[in-house]
Specification:
The structure is a single chain. The chain has 491 residues and is α+β, with helices and mostly antiparallel strands. It has five domains: 111 residues, no CATH class; 87 residues, no CATH class; 79 residues, no CATH class; 105 residues, no CATH class; 53 residues, no CATH class. It contains five helices and 31 strands. Helix 1 runs antiparallel to helix 5. The radius of gyration is 26 Å and the shape is globular.
């Protein structure tokens, strides 16, 4: 953060405003530009998190309110007028958010950071590496079927009503921020959206739904979901042995590209804490609201199939990691250590991969699992970080070949194909052959969109509603492609 040596006063006349505006002494008034982000190498974007947010002409004493800003509006920041500390608060000077070149006539004013969202993505849980995702436990109006939504974190102004949807949402802000996290018992309200990425090309984000009461929310802290195994009895008991959910046997699996499955909210050593959506099954009881919670023990014969939720971009990041390892395997040892150490951050973030109870170093696989990462099928994932980055040239060559095979596996996932068999032709030169199939669910039919073809590639039209499409990916509200992929497909 830059310290201020002084600030300039500019006077604007005849352009709909007439006032003095303070700028930092670092401002190039002859060449206005936007403040850049060091994390994303682009302009910093901000969104107004509370309706009627005040924008001032300065951040010092005797400030004058220039504007009252609307909730959900998008702005950028004038270069060298960012994160200024004054009067116990942090301030930035905002401009209209969609101009490619800053226009001094469109300066909005100084706004305190307490009213702003700075991230295009939701808040991330530092322990799991995942975005905070939540579900509405119950509504507060309309017999529990709807929930009150506000345009202010204090839940006092501009109240609207939203019908509860059977889906999860992301958390972009929480109040008060000194509670420490969205999940804290001291958090009073949450700012939510169905989107995992806000639109930086629009001056308004309509899918920032609003602020809701924290007490009505439970969090989904994994990437995992499940469905009941076809042909098995659907009966779920709680930890006391009481039946909490029953349904008719499922005759066929759900389509992979359905938009919702039963969610694994948390995973403990001996059980899954789950959210079951009765509408997905032919439930015997009719009194359920949105979903029910239960603990499913792992040490019993549970009839569920587990799925991993991921974005198309998640796979692209993994492929970037694998390609980086493959292409730098022959680098000189010291250089390779540094390069591979940096590449590892893609899959393990900033984690030190140490078991805090024993002090023992975790394997890459264990570390990746700890942060809820996407499983990578490769022997090098059984190495510790130290072993991985300090491998010798022969080991590096083997790791590169494993990375190449794993990359092809993810390439096929993106193309909605599944590996049936890998045959190593020349291990020394890493030459291998892959046999794959489009029949993802193994039902003997290859179904894409409105066409059905058998394994002889003869196309048949008029599929029935019971036919399952061989598709992983689908579009989620307001964002790109996402998928439920069976966990066993990664191993």
């Amino acid at each position: 953060m830059k310290s201020l040596c002084y600030f300039l006063l500019l006077f604007f006349w005849g352009i709909n405003i007439s006032y003095s505006l303070c700028l930092t002494c670092y401002t190039d008034i002859n060449n206005f530009s936007f403040e850049k982000s060091q994390e994303i190498y682009g302009d910093i974007s901000v969104w107004i998190a509370r309706d009627k947010t005040p924008a001032f002409n300065c951040f010092k004493n005797d400030m004058a309110v220039l504007n009252r800003l609307n909730f959900r509006k998008h702005y950028r920041i004038l270069k060298d007028n960012y994160r200024i500390r004054s009067n116990g608060k942090t301030w930035s000077l905002l401009l209209d958010g969609i101009d490619t070149v800053p226009d001094p006539r469109k300066i909005i004013g100084w706004v305190s950071h307490e009213y702003l969202i700075f991230n295009t993505n939701p808040i991330k849980n530092d322990l799991t590496g995942l975005y905070y995702k939540g579900l509405i436990i119950h509504g507060d109006i309309n017999n529990g079927n709807s929930i009150s939504v506000y345009e202010n974190s204090t839940l006092t102004e501009t109240k609207t009503t939203v019908e509860i949807q059977n889906n999860f949402f992301y958390v972009y802000d929480y109040y008060p921020r000194n509670s420490g996290s969205p999940e804290s018992i001291y958090t009073r309200s949450l700012l939510i959206s169905p989107k995992s990425h806000l639109d930086v090309y629009s001056d308004y984000e309509p899918l920032l739904v609003g602020w809701i009461d924290r007490k009505n929310v439970i969090f989904w802290n994994t990437r995992k979901a499940f469905e009941f195994t076809p042909g098995s009895n659907i009966e779920v008991k709680d930890e006391n042995g009481r039946i909490v959910f029953t349904a008719e046997k499922r005759l066929k699996p759900m389509p992979y590209n359905t938009k919702l499955k039963h969610l694994i909210l948390d995973e403990e050593e001996d059980y899954y804490h789950v959210a079951i959506f009765p509408f997905l099954e032919k439930a015997m009881q009719k009194s359920f609201k949105n979903f029910i919670q239960a603990n499913i023990k792992k040490n019993i014969n549970i009839n569920i199939n587990i799925f991993q939720f991921l974005f198309f971009t998640d796979i692209e990041k993994i492929m970037y990691f694998l390609t980086g390892i493959l292409e730098t395997a022959e680098a000189e040892n010291d250089n390779r250590k540094k390069i591979w150490d940096n590449f590892l951050r893609i899959i393990i973030g900033e984690m030190n991969c140490i078991d805090h109870k024993t002090g023992k170093e975790l394997t890459l696989k264990e570390c990746n699992q700890k942060r809820n990462g996407i499983p990578i099928k490769a022997n090098f994932m059984n190495k510790t970080k130290t072993q991985f980055i300090n491998c010798d040239n022969n080991e590096a060559k083997t790791i590169a070949c494993e990375a190449k095979i794993a990359r092809d596996h993810f390439r096929l996932l993106i193309q909605e194909k599944m590996i049936q068999k890998i045959t190593m032709i020349n291990k020394e030169q890493c030459i291998f052959d892959i046999i794959y199939t489009h029949d993802l669910n193994g039902d003997g039919l290859i179904i894409k969109d409105d066409k059905v073809c058998n394994l002889s590639n003869i196309f048949i039209r008029n599929k029935t509603v019971d036919d399952l499409e061989d598709k992983f990916f689908f579009k989620k509200a307001g964002e790109g492609s996402v998928a439920w992929i069976p966990l066993k497909k990664f191993y």
